[in-house]
Design brief:
single chain; DUF488; two-stranded antiparallel ribbon
Length: 138
């Protein structure tokens, strides 16, 4: 849906979560869980922070109250909080250091860093299109 693309022509996950198809997909997952099914979403990406299933879908499901688990390439199982930590480690590796922003009271909260980290991951992995068709004015 081209409405979900931002000015940098990649799919903006903060817009995708409001698309009708995405919402319906979440409702189907919830319905399946309520019926007792065990739901698995499969992907081929080795590193979950490089995959939209954890950055877009997993995060959204966690925020909706689901217990999201990821099977990693070493067969270990990690929850979505682990993904949050990986995102923080990748995009804010020096977050525990005292910064000038911290001294001035302008430091980002952990939640703000997580949100910004997910935005940065989205920018790296969001589906891109070369050129959105421009609608002609009449």
């Amino acid at each position: 849906n081209k409405v979900s693309y931002n000015n940098e022509v990649y799919s903006d996950f903060e817009k995708v979560i409001y698309e009708e198809d995405f919402i319906k997909g979440g409702e189907r997952i919830e319905d399946g869980c309520n019926k007792g099914y065990k739901i698995a979403l499969l992907g081929a990406m080795q590193d979950p922070i490089r995959c939209h299933r954890s950055i877009l879908v997993g995060r959204s499901l966690k925020e909706a109250g689901f217990n999201v688990m990821h099977i990693l390439d070493d067969y270990s199982i990690k929850n979505q909080d682990y993904i949050d930590e990986r995102v923080l480690d990748k995009y804010f590796p020096g977050r525990s250091q005292i910064t000038i922003d911290a001294l001035l009271g302008n430091e980002m909260s952990r939640e703000e860093m997580v949100n910004e980290g997910y935005r940065m991951a989205n920018k790296e992995i969001g589906y891109r299109i070369e050129c959105l068709p421009v609608e002609k004015k009449r």
